């Protein structure tokens, strides 16, 4: 089932999201993001982790990496991370009415969600039950109609609010990004906006955890996909390009740089697989799988950024052109690094967690 | 027998814990701090025989190696429990436990298997490996040590180098040249040599960290080796050597990785216990977390090498990736330790060599090059990855 799913995602993206179309999209000559969304809804991709009773495929989180690695590999235009992340967040709240109302629509791609990609919650306040202020950066496809935003609750604690963005008092602002395969993030400007729900305390913790877990798995996998794509295109280019009467790929200095990229990607990917296994099997050894997912995400993003950076250098002059894909790779992985925790933040948090259960033993 | 619990993991764990608590002397660590190489070797022999009384040292041997064919999960549990109490390592037994059985199982005669494998289990016989020569390191196939047939004997002349534990070994797995015709790979032959045969001279080489008996150069002068000691056929040695070398990229790496993983957690708790200064340093905290994260990936990879072996996926590139990543991570860990330990790490202090992470970070750091150089250097692994996995052209 999983392999079939991945193969079908890969073959559709291969056909629909080739380099020429992607460049045309970037230059504003097609609506590739909308086309891909259309395919995704028709093929049921968006309901991968939605329960069958809500018209989804009823699969576990292991679908997320399968899916997003392919999306990263083909530098898919638009955003698909937010749907899986928003779905996981709703599932964690486990509210029967919400689930019934929104999960089938999410699975069918009828509603497009926004999700927060940073911990920013200071400038958006809950006061007297309504939201005021402006959210941090949000990720999602164009035309979103629902969103999860981070906000400060009345007691000063961080909270997550779910909002219908078509409600009065809600404006979606564009936040253009350098990554042209995704074009923009958004912020939500709220003036006395009535949220659907404000999640605090235990419900906040569950939602926050689900959002981070799914968001990090998806982003890390997207990065790995981009990283391997960068490596493949680089090796292919190096094998064709001749200098000094031989393919550059036959030079050992070049070979070792490629091998270094390959082994760093391999380690990052294994880390991600290990973390996923810990999440699914509870093979936790006393430690929270969230710690290992966070560390794996940091490694995947960095290894892929390195792969992208090397692809520019190893392509020479053409790597420095708009026409080649190298800058897409680098923009995409660098943006990924900032989603759901930067490598620095994630590693710092991880050590906090790893040391948090410490009780000094008396000497 | 502990291994009667092989299918019930929690019972297996309890049995191992109980056995270790009973068997491993509580003062063994202090006892081995600053021990002479001779004492350390004797200690390894004793610990090996304790382990073997429960078949624990050879538990990974598949049935065709004359072992119990323990599952990968059960084997991992043994390693984890040994790691948890930081039980002694037995580096002198590496060739006896991994290279020898892999080689004989595939290419040895029934007589050779019956003679040598039980002797490892019952008598704790130590073997060494005589492959490298002064002129043949990464380019192993250019080896020159010569063997000439003389009746029922081969007469061996030449020099080997870097033979680990040659000093304590009873036998050697030796590669020799029997022909200069055809390609250099085609004239290599694989012999078993008794180290007490006249004409063998073992001269220990002092290691960079000062250890005196860990490896040696070995001179062969008119050494007569009976033809029954031939492994496989004459001039088939190169192919057989590949099997020997493959054995070194399997469970050995998993055992080390699992030990490092446990030690990383232990060291973190120790740091908290002693309120180590680096816990106040945000950058060092991040670096430590990163090492722990990478360790999870390396353990996963090391497990994959073994499961691929079991499925017979012989052309997989996983071992090459694992070799580089595992040795580099070890080096990073020790480098981090040496860097953060302050000037203390630069002071002379007696140490215990029989654990993966000793009380002496600088010395562990220096020793980590044993992993990046030997067993196919990391540069050779990069060549393999580039050419075989990425398909980059040789020239
Ligand atoms: C601790 C330790 C224990 C050992 N134990 C044993 C043992 O028990 N038995 C045994 O037979 N041998 C043993 N060895 C030897 C080991 O296998 C060799 O050291 C290894 O194969 C490298 O050979 P070399 O030392 O001659 O280095 P060289 O081959 O001379 O290499 C020198 C440097 O050049 C690089 N290099 C070489 N060729 C290439 C190439 N084609 N492309 C790119 N870079 C290249 C190497 O990576 C290295 O960095 C041991 C070594 C060590 C360090």
Structural features, described:
The complex is a heterodimer of chains A (363) and B (395). Chain A is of the alpha+beta class and 363 residues long. Helix content of chain A is 53%, strand content 15%. Chain A has 3 domains: 111 residues, Acyl-CoA dehydrogenase/oxidase, N-terminal domain (Butyryl-Coa Dehydrogenase, subunit A, domain 1, Orthogonal Bundle); 88 residues, Butyryl-CoA Dehydrogenase, subunit A, domain 2, CATH 2.40.110.10; 154 residues, Butyryl-CoA Dehydrogenase, subunit A, domain 3 (Up-down Bundle). Chain A starts with a helix and ends in a 9-residue tail after the last helix. Chain B is of the alpha+beta class. Chain B has 13 helices and 8 strands. In chain B, strand 2 and strand 3 form a beta hairpin. In chain B, helix 10 packs antiparallel against helix 13. The longest helix of chain B is centred in the last third of the chain and has 29 residues. The N and C termini of chain B lie far apart (56 Å). Classes of the chains: A alpha+beta (363), B alpha+beta (395). The interface between A and B is large, with 43 and 39 residues. Bound molecules: flavin-adenine dinucleotide (FAD). The site of flavin-adenine dinucleotide has 18 residues of chain B, from strand 1, strand 3, helix 12 and helix 13.
């Amino acid at each position: 089932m999983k392999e079939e799913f991945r193969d079908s995602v890969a073959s559709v993206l291969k056909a629909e999201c080739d380099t020429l179309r992607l460049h045309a999209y970037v230059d504003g000559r097609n609506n590739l993001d909308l086309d891909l969304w259309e395919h995704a809804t028709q093929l049921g991709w968006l309901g991968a982790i939605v329960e069958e009773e809500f018209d989804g495929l009823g699969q576990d989180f292991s679908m997320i990496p399968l899916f997003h690695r392919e999306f990263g590999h083909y530098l898919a235009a638009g955003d698909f991370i937010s749907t899986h992340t928003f779905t996981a967040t709703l599932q964690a709240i486990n509210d029967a009415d919400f689930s019934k109302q929104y999960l089938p629509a999410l699975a069918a791609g009828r509603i497009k969600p926004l999700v927060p990609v940073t911990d920013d919650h200071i400038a958006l306040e809950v006061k007297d039950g309504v939201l005021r202020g402006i959210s941090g950066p949000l990720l999602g496809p164009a035309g979103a109609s629902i969103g999860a935003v981070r906000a400060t609750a009345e007691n000063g604690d961080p909270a997550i609010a779910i909002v219908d963005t078509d409600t009065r008092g809600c404006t979606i602002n564009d936040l253009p990004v350098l990554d042209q395969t995704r074009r923009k993030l958004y912020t939500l400007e709220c003036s006395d906006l009535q949220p659907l729900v404000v999640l605090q305390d235990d419900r906040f913790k569950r939602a926050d955890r689900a959002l981070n877990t799914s968001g990090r798995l998806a982003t890390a996998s997207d990065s790995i996909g981009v990283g391997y794509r960068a490596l493949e295109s680089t090796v292919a280019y190096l094998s064709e390009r001749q200098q000094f009467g031989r393919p550059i790929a036959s030079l050992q200095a070049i070979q070792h740089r490629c091998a270094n990229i390959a082994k760093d990607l391999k380690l990052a990917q294994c880390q991600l697989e290990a973390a996923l296994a810990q999440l699914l099997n509870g093979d936790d050894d006393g430690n929270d799988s969230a710690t290992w997912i966070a560390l794996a995400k940091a490694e995947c993003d960095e290894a892929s950024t390195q792969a992208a950076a090397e692809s520019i250098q190893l392509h020479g002059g053409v790597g420095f052109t708009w026409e080649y894909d190298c800058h897409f790779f680098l923009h995409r992985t660098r943006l990924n690094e900032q989603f759901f925790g930067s490598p620095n933040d994630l590693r710092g948090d991880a050590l906090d967690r790893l040391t948090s259960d410490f009780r000094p033993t008396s000497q | 027998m502990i291994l009667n619990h092989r299918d019930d993991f929690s019972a297996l764990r309890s049995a191992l814990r109980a056995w270790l608590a009973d068997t491993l002397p509580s003062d063994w660590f202090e006892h081995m701090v600053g021990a002479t190489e001779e004492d350390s070797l004797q200690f390894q022999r004793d610990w090996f025989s304790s382990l073997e009384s429960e078949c624990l040292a050879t538990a990974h041997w598949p049935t065709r190696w004359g072992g119990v064919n323990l599952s990968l999960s059960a084997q991992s549990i043994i390693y984890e429990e040994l790691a948890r109490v930081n039980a002694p390592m037995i580096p002198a037994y590496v060739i006896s436990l991994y290279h020898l059985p892999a080689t004989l199982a595939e290419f040895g005669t029934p007589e050779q298997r019956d003679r040598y494998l039980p002797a490892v289990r019952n008598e704790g016989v130590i073997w060494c490996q005589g492959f490298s020569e002064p002129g043949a390191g990464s380019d192993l196939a250019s080896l020159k040590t010569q063997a000439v047939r003389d009746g029922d004997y081969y007469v061996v002349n030449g020099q080997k180098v870097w033979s680990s534990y040659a000093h304590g070994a009873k036998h050697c797995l030796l590669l020799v040249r029997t022909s200069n015709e055809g390609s250099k790979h085609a004239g290599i032959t694989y012999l078993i040599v008794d180290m007490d045969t006249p004409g063998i001279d073992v001269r220990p080489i002092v290691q960079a960290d000062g250890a005196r008996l860990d490896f040696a150069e070995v001179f062969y002068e008119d050494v007569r080796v009976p033809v029954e000691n031939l492994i496989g056929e004459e001039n088939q040695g190169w192919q057989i050597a590949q099997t020997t070398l493959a054995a070194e990229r399997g469970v050995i790496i998993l055992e080390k990785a699992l030990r490092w993983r446990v030690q990383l957690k232990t060291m973190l708790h120790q740091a908290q216990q002693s309120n180590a200064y680096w816990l106040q340093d945000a950058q060092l905290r991040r670096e430590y977390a990163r090492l722990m994260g990478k360790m999870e990936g390396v353990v996963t990879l090391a497990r994959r090498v073994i499961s691929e072996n079991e499925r017979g996926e012989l052309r997989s590139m996983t071992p090459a990736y694992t070799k580089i990543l595992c040795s580099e991570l070890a080096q990073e860990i020790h480098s981090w330790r040496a860097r953060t330990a302050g000037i203390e790490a630069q002071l002379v202090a007696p140490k215990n060599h029989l654990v993966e992470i000793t009380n002496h970070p600088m010395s562990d750091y220096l020793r980590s090059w044993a992993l990046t150089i030997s067993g196919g250097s990391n540069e050779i692994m990069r060549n393999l990855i580039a050419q075989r996995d990425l398909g980059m052209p040789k020239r």
